[in-house]
Amino acid sequence: METGLRYAGNDICYPAVLVTGDIIKALQSKRYDPGRIAVGITQTGGQCRASSYLSVIRKAMVAAGFDHVPVISVTSAQGLTHQPGFDINWLKILKLLFVTTMYADCIAKMYYATAVREVHKGRAAHLRKHYIAAAQPCILARDYDRFFSLLDAAVSDFNQVDMHDRVMGKIGIVGEIYVKYNGFGNQFLAEFLMENQIEPVIPPILDYFVQDFVNYRENIRAHIRHRKISDILGQFIETFLNTFHKRINQRFSRFRFYTPFHDIRTVADKAGRILSLVNQFGEGWLIPGEIACLAEEGITHVISVQPFGCIANHIVSKGVEKRIKALYPDMNLLYLDFDAGTSEVNIRNRLYFMVEAVKASFQKDCCHVTDSPGSRTFA
């Protein structure tokens, strides 16, 4: 964060500060040969400051003395940048990207459900680390059968962890992609909840990347874009990938705290009751769609995290509150904003009230309380 502020400034979005700081810090660490390294950064190409990361990072690298290191735009969009010597056949690796991302989502889901309940602390973290590392040979060999075998083994191992037999309160976490999934970016929000015996429920990262299966059709319907020949390919890819979605869900269903991964069209249908699906910048309709899915799973306390500078997410996330509460009256939403100056005390104080509300709620549901003068007994 400090390195990012030095080279990027605080007028760019918070994730850009952290990403820029990470890159400069890595280059300054002397772990890499400057003559044999390139920096790759994903690009959205949309109305998001992430589309400016390339120029922000390049400017920072020049200022830090790394102007000779190339910066590459990693994107599937055509026409954003022309980069001789760097070309990815996305169709070739699409299956690999899909399977590995969903595999990681399964590991994450099992980790959070297990770590908050485990008797011997650290067992779930060990399993998570082991199965992420075990995936590397499968990726290099593109061995999909081994991926499925690994997932079976992971489910079995997580199921065998000794756990407390108590009902846990749950809090959902939605919001902007970086601060939602990056522990440092959200001040280790999930870990804080688990320390307080609350299970964090975080939607799969896969949804962010497959939402375009919905977006292009909505844009055609709204006359924002014309139909293209390539749309037929998109329909074929969606059908093809859905077969793997079902296979992984089927294997994952053996996990003892299993809750299904929703198909992206299910998420979109629920979001469509709240706002128009042409709201696609930032996380767009994905935020209300994920909140609706959590509500229908019985999770009525949700935290929405946004970084400073992410205008699209602030507008959508806070703008849909009234409609969400009309559809789900029991929903309790907490908005947390993160930037380089956000104090831990500020965040923890705001979280405290939601954590206490959840604890009170599930204790009321699961415990019979009897009062007597000077004592309180939980049975």
Describe this structure in words.
The protein has a four-stranded parallel β-sheet with strand order 4-3-5-6, with helices on both faces. Among the domains are: 2-74, no CATH class; 167-204 and 261-379, Rossmann fold (3-Layer(aba) Sandwich), CATH 3.40.50. By secondary structure, the chain is α/β, with parallel strands linked by helices. The chain is 53% helix and 11% strand. The protein has helices at residues 2-7, 14-28, 53-63, 90-115, 123-141, 144-159, 177-181, 189-195, 206-210, 212-221, 230-252, 264-271, 286-296, 311-319, 321-327, 344-366; strands at residues 39-42, 71-74, 169-175, 198-201, 301-307, 332-338, 369-372, 375-378.
Topology:
Elements: H1 2-7, H2 14-28, E1 39-42, H3 53-63, E2 71-74, H4 90-115, H5 123-141, H6 144-159, E3 169-175, H7 177-181, H8 189-195, E4 198-201, H9 206-210, H10 212-221, H11 230-252, H12 264-271, H13 286-296, E5 301-307, H14 311-319, H15 321-327, E6 332-338, H16 344-366, E7 369-372, E8 375-378
Parallel strand pairs: 1-2, 3-4, 3-5, 5-6
Antiparallel strand pairs: 7-8
Helix pairs in contact: 2-3, 4-5, 4-6, 4-11, 5-6, 12-13
Quick gist of this model?
This protein has 379 residues and is of the alpha/beta class. It has 16 helices and eight strands. The longest helix is centred in the first third of the chain and has 26 residues, at 90-115.
